[in-house]
Design goal:
Shape: globular
Oligomer: single chain
Largest sheet: 8 strands, antiparallel, barrel
Order of helices and strands: HHEEEEEEEE
Distance between the termini: 65 Å
Number of helices: 2
Strand order of the largest sheet: 1-2-3-4-5-6-7-8
Strand content: 35-45%
């Protein structure tokens, strides 16, 4: 009598069907559907999420390749990801003054930290709803 081949027959088909159903039913995190986890609107506190966009405490907006602050816009390039950490080159325009620097971005679903090469301090933010 011949030994059954592992992974063949109705048991293998049932197992593959269960895996396929599980994969289809698994929700995709919103951040991966819209871009990197760091994309969104962030502020230094939940209260600052409601601040008008006309001062230093106003929220910042991050897209996959852009950081927009009050009077500064930074275009990101050479973006590298390692886990929940991204590093990028940034070309920033502050009312016509152009600077080039590097930025490190740490992100989770609710928290964001930015570390600019020109500033030793890490800047912490919460996600605005």
């Amino acid at each position: 009598m011949r030994e059954p081949v592992v992974g063949s027959g109705w048991r293998a088909i049932a197992a593959m069907s269960a895996i396929a159903v599980f994969a289809v039913a698994m929700p995709i995190p919103a951040a991966s559907a819209k871009g990197p986890l760091y994309t969104g609107i962030w502020a230094t506190s939940a209260a600052n999420c409601k601040a008008p966009r006309d001062g230093s405490s106003s929220p910042i907006r991050l897209s996959a390749k852009l950081i927009e602050e009050f009077e500064v816009t930074c275009k990101l390039s050479a973006i590298n990801r390692q886990g929940a950490t991204w590093t990028a080159k940034a070309r920033c325009d502050d009312l016509g003054t152009i600077t080039r620097e590097r930025v490190t971005i740490w992100a989770s679903a609710k928290l964001l930290t930015l570390k600019w090469s020109t500033n030793a301090q890490r800047l912490n933010y919460v996600r605005c709803k």
